[in-house]
Amino acid sequence: ISFDLEEEQTLPTSLQTFLCNAEGGAIVRQFLEQYFQLFDSDNRQMLLQAYHENALFSMTMAYPYGTKDKNSNWLHWYSTDNRNIIRVTDSERRFKLLKKGNVSIISFLKEMPMSNHDIMNFKVDLTVFTPIMMSLTVAGMFKELKSGHKQPPIRSFLRTLIIVPAGSGYCITNDELHITNATEDQVKTFKSTPLPPPAIIVTSPSISSPVAPAVVP
Amino acid sequence: MDVSLRSKVDQACRVAEEFTKLYYEAADKRRHLISRLYLDTGLLTWNGNGVMGNERIQKFYMDLPPTDHTLNTLDAQPILDEAVNGQLTYLIQVSGTVKYQEKVPKTFQQNFIVTAEGGKWKIVSDCFRLQEPITEKS
User: At B71, which CATH number?
Assistant: First the structure.
């Protein structure tokens, strides 16, 4: 016999997508597809137009709880720019680790290891959608390529983007990225998304248009 | 160097430190007060489940199993004026572990948009995700 208070409570079921505004769904889908196609290409320079000229970017990294593969799937590359303000307490360093402006953001993104994102498995939350701004959270996985590992590691990430209208498209004003290793359960569900041929990216009208930063709705 | 940006960044970090301390303490130990941290129209998305309004969010929290959060990383930025009409607003992102009812900790990531209203910092949006695959497609 036990007491009623000890009854097991269950967690709500997780859902893949939350859209605070149904209209925003199509814009978000297109924005993410274009952004990650370019991010996974060998020409991340093209993302320059996806960022506001004064945009801010920062990154944190950590190993997930209980993982034993720190030796093989080390995250060293990400630790240099890890802006974890729990550890980084010096205000000068906190400021320095923040990438300020689209040019410095792109030069950092270009240094990051090559990637192949599993777009089909993205979890997407659109939490603000107003005429002046959108707040978008993407969680998912990517395969890290050509970074000196015997087996390309599968990383897990969560990224928060603040997006504003610009010209006939949109651009990112704030970008916070968290990178960690995918857990065994996550790795089982990973699917490689084949990259489109580069020609498609280059000729995409919304990217080459000077007024449309990344997406034309 | 941009002096005003520098001071905004400093403040964003300080607010993030103070805010997360209060937030996770409320989530773990004082859930009956958690609605006070949100705007009346605040939004919580918990693993893709949207809960709109501070009263409903509190109810949602009261129904969750007991939690114990530990933070591993914290990051904060001031949101650019263009996006928020110049109103002081911060983007805060967190990662850590959460134990539900003394079970094995789960890794989570979470972000907050926090804005100044009536002399208090209030949550506009709170987005929580456990780091695990979705089993049922929505």
Answer: 3.10.450.50
Contact between B94 and B20 (Cβ < 8 Å): yes
Contact (CB<8Å) A132/B85? yes
What is chain A's Cα-based Rg?
19
Residues A140-165 pLDDT 10s: 999 999 888 888 999 999 999 999 99
Q: Where are the domains of chain A?
A: 16-196
DSSP string, A9-36: P-PPPP-SEEESSTTHHHHHHHHHHHHH
pTM equals 0.91
Tens-digit pLDDT profile for residues B37-63: 999 999 999 999 999 999 999 999 999
Total domains in chain B come to 1
Could you tell me how many CB contacts below 8 A there are between chain A and chain B?
A: 182
- Domain, as residue range, for B67: 3-130
The amino acid at residue A2 is S
Say yes or no for a CB contact (<8 Å) between A94 and B13: yes
Location of structure tokens 């593969």: A69
Q: Which of B50, B71, B111 sits opposite A160 (nearest CB)?
A: B111
Measured between CA atoms, the residue of chain B closest to residue A14 is: B47
pLDDT tens for each residue of B8-40: 999 999 999 999 999 999 999 999 999 999 999
Q: Would residue B138 count as lying in a domain?
A: no
DSSP E strand boundaries for A29-145: 51-61, 99-100, 114-117, 123-129, 134-145
ipTM over 0.90: yes
CATH class as words, domain A16-196 = alpha beta
**What is the reported pLDDT for A204?**
34
Instruction: Report if residue B74 sits inside a domain.
Output: yes
Optimal mutation site among A79, A89, A173, A184, interface B, most CBs of chain B within 10 A: A173
Distance CA B71, CA B67 (A): 13
pLDDT in tens, A184-209: 999 999 987 665 544 333 333 343 33
Picking from B72, B76, B129, the nearest residue to A139 by CB comes out as: B129
